[in-house]
């Protein structure tokens, strides 16, 4: 490997153009040197914009993985193709990071997990919320102060936005992946929940499709039991009528409580907590303002370190972890079909 870490972009659509490349370019060592898209003209346009040589715009995925000058591949494909890309990465021993959710369904996701366990090739799922600064602050600074955690309320809701540029993409209008918008955005929310409180054991929920444009059920109201026995509620959806976009995570302990609020209306995200085992012992509320990092930049720094060290143990979001996030959404959908019955979250 040269001083620069050369990577290829597979899938040169909106997110690659508007987010991945501009973010990765902040990391000096990383250099985009190749591109592929099913519609080659789109890859050529992308390559021209980012000074990638025409000769490095490939006609097939296999050509990308065969290129010895490429150190890793950044894949942004409709998730039903993630399994195919993983197989190529292992075949050609090429480190791969790929967009969430991990796969279109749990059968594909389980195969990805099984494949990842048979190889030393680094395979990382891009779930950037895992890198939120707030997670470490909550776990290290605040949770120890509020005693044993007994419950939580996780609330992330907002209004429908018909001008959302991703709404027009075919894989969102006609999703073949589990949960459609619920899994596309929901795995971010689940990543935050589980990074703080651990794995989910079971879920009882109801889902509903509010907007035809989303192509599938798009809101979720549920009750959740964690592996630790902690219980709580999880509400998610952005298909409602006019309302404030509200995002908060309240955790209740035996010696206090905390509220993490990252609603867009705030200047900065905040963690507010108070301690005390009962009303008469309640402390003053303490507010921590969070200077949040660029989580997408942080996830690529993580993968850079993985590629340089050639050590998949450094990966923060493994296929097994990403499987769990998708499995929670699948369990919620199954629960809704069973009139809200409690459904165990499937293991990989």
From TrEMBL:
Superkingdom of the source species = Eukaryota
> Which part of the chain is the Gfo/Idh/MocA-like oxidoreductase N-terminal domain?
5-125
Which terms does the record give in the GO molecular function aspect? Answer: nucleotide binding
Question: Which intervals hold domain Gfo/Idh/MocA-like oxidoreductase C-terminal?
Answer: 145-344
Question: What Pfam families does this protein map onto?
Answer: GFO_IDH_MocA, GFO_IDH_MocA_C
InterPro entries on file: Gfo/Idh/MocA-like_OxRdtase_C, Gfo/Idh/MocA-like_OxRdtase_N, Gfo/Idh/MocA_oxidoreduct
Q: Which PANTHER family match?
A: CONSERVED EXPRESSED OXIDOREDUCTASE (EUROFUNG), OXIDOREDUCTASE
Return the protein name: Gfo/Idh/MocA-like oxidoreductase N-terminal domain-containing protein
Q: Which organism is it from?
A: [Candida] subhashii
């Amino acid at each position: 490997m040269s001083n620069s870490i050369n990577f290829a972009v597979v899938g040169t659509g909106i997110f690659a153009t508007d987010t991945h490349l501009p973010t990765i370019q902040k990391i000096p060592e990383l250099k985009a040197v190749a591109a592929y898209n099913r519609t080659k003209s789109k890859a050529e346009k992308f390559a021209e914009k980012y000074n990638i040589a025409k000769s490095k715009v490939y006609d097939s995925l296999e050509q990308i993985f065969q290129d010895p000058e490429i150190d890793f591949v950044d894949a942004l494909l409709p998730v039903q193709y993630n399994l195919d890309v993983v197989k190529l990465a292992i075949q050609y021993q090429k480190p791969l990071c790929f967009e969430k959710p991990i796969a279109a369904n749990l059968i594909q996701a389980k195969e990805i997990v099984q494949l990842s366990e048979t190889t030393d090739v680094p395979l990382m799922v891009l779930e950037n919320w895992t890198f939120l600064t707030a997670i470490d602050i909550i776990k290290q600074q605040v949770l120890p102060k509020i005693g044993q955690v007994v419950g939580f309320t996780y609330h992330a809701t907002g209004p429908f936005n018909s001008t959302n540029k991703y709404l027009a993409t075919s894989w969102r209008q006609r999703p073949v992946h589990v949960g459609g918008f619920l899994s596309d955005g929901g795995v971010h929310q689940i990543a935050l929940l589980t990074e703080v409180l651990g794995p989910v054991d079971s879920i009882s929920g109801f889902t509903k499709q509010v907007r035809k444009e989303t192509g599938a059920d798009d809101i979720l109201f549920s009750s959740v039991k964690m592996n630790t026995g902690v219980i709580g509620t999880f509400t998610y959806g952005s298909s409602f009528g006019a309302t404030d976009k509200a995002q908060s995570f309240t955790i209740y302990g035996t010696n206090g409580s905390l509220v993490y609020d990252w609603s867009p209306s705030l200047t900065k995200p905040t963690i507010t907590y108070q301690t005390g085992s009962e009303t008469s012992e309640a402390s003053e509320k303490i507010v921590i303002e969070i200077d949040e990092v660029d989580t997408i930049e942080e996830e690529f720094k993580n993968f850079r370190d993985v590629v340089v060290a050639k050590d998949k143990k450094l990966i923060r979001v493994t296929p097994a972890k990403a499987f769990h996030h998708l499995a929670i959404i699948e369990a919620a959908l199954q629960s809704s079909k069973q009139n809200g019955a409690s459904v165990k979250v499937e293991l990989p």
